[in-house]
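Subgroup meeting minutes
Present: P.N., E.W., G.H.
Scribe: E.W.

1. P.N. recapped why we're keeping a running log of single-chain structure predictions: easier to compare across weeks, and new members can see raw inputs and outputs side by side.
2. G.H. added today's entry (554 aa).
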Amino acid sequence: MVFPTRLAFSLATAAALLCAAATGNQYHRGGVMAERDGLHHPEANTPFVFSDAVYVPNTVDEFRAEVAKLPLALVFFHAAWSYSSQEFYQHFDDVAKQLWSGKPKIRAVAVDVEALPELGTMHSVNSLPTLAAMRYGVEARTAENQLPRDPAGIVAHMRSLLKPPAVELTDMASAKRFVNPTTKLPVGEVEAHVSVRLTGDDQARDKEVVVFAFAQEGLNQDVFLDVARYFNLKFTFCWTEDATIARGYGARFDTLVVYTKFNGTHTFDVGQKDWDRAEMLDFITTAALPPVGVFNTHTKPLYFHLRRPLLLYFTHFTGAEKNPHWDALQAAAAVWKNISFVQGDPIRLGLTVSFLDLTLLHAHNKFAIGLLVGKTKYRYEKSAVDADSLLQWLAGVESGAVPVHHKSAPEFPLPGYGDGEVFELVHSNFRRVVVDDPDRDALLFMYDPDHRGCQELMPIFDAVAETFRGVASLLVGRFDSTANDYEPEYVIPGVPSILFAAANNKTVPIRMTGLHRTVDNIVEFAREHATKAIPADVSRATNKTPSPSIKDDL
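Output recorded in log:
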């Protein structure tokens, strides 16, 4: 069954957006969620003072030489003028002290991108602050660089990166600690609905998923350990070259075996030899996830890796005993095997619920269902769930009978072109007013009303609009990224972002780079890319009071 969308392109976009929504306040390397401040902090002239636990390089060569010899390092890219950097740097210093005082020691490195801009460019730093875990000077994998925001979480995460990704099994006794050779089930008592415990807690003895590698010559150990490191302790990985252990589990050499335990049942999948990393990842991910799993910060990378449509069921109830719709979800998952079925807590995943524009229904058994197919969203509108209704709805999505859902705020009255005010754009009018208008350039401010950097940038952008008063060839607009879906061409990596869409090329907007955003810089950015000359004598209003529409949001 094929859904009406281009999965290869759109899933990457949707994964980035939903990843941001699902994780809430996390620092991601390269930063969907890392804050972007374009304004000077009141204490911008006050340099950061770090403890001895933090290495502060003075040159690019010093940085390279130091991190190249470190098996693991935590790098903090910052600038003194950035609000977020100022707010976080003391926490970073506390993290550095804990990492350096423990065993083994982990070095923390602080890089001022103002003093060493080459390092900011070299490591694609376009968000401040940015945290990055590095191994011998090379950035760790994306899954390893999803760092919690709180200091204790960062310390625990960095410590986890030092643990061996796989356990070497030397005899049957060591293997039996993880999998019972008779039942082929992971060892330990688990809850009836064990997928709710798929949290990546490395302290749990009874992991629901155990991966054995029975290696001889064909199965590359380095590739297997690299794959184990990718999963970052979400599953238990074991490695053995012992023939006695292989015979004890009835396994062939140079195979992978994934043992799982879901709702009292188990799966037994045997891998093939000579697989490369990508094939090994696909095999383990597909074999390890239950028919209806849990969507949280630990499991989301696994579901995104599968690049399949994602059905999200939000409820306060978890587990087969408590969830009144459990049987319906299982029945639908058995039919639609090309869809990943997951459930999540709407309180912990409130941003994801908002991203999908869902509301909890039914006063007693509150739930909401959304389907993400690439960047395309669908909402289950019925007030009850049973297997037939859910299957019928999915069939309607496939046939096109169920309409695509677009999140959009109500439309605002728009000012006249050149009136010196900012257009408040929403999804429902964005294409008509911006994309499909061949006569005007567009200068756009993509923002989050609750983001401090965005709040501070609002009056500056309002002053930019006043600067261009009388320039009817230029639309100056802003777009609330939390209340509206983006047009595909205008998806951004984070807020605040300023874009310029030239009248003759609206499908490829230009994003303003650089970390300083002032009236002069934004005006110069617009002049540089304008398709119609902007008069040199347009009014200047750097210190203008924000318009009423802006004031309401401050």
